[in-house]
Write a structure and sequence with these properties.
97% helix, mainly alpha
Length: 62
């Protein structure tokens, strides 16, 4: 019985730590995904701005 109680406690500890690590993994995945989305947006803005400047330069020279 004392052995069983000890074993149950250990199992619960493992459960908690796997839950925490799973949550951390999800958080890391989310932040990586967000970073990727942000980089995509930044590239899009950069391209749009370059295009805008290029267009303005072209209309000035005509």
């Amino acid at each position: 019985t004392m052995m069983e109680i000890g074993r149950n406690r250990n199992e619960k500890k493992i459960d908690t730590s796997t839950t925490i690590s799973k949550a951390l993994q999800n958080e890391v995945i989310d932040s990586v995904h967000n970073k990727y989305e942000l980089e995509k947006l930044q590239k899009k803005w950069l391209i749009e701005n370059i295009y805008r400047i290029f267009k303005a330069e072209c209309t000035e020279t005509q």
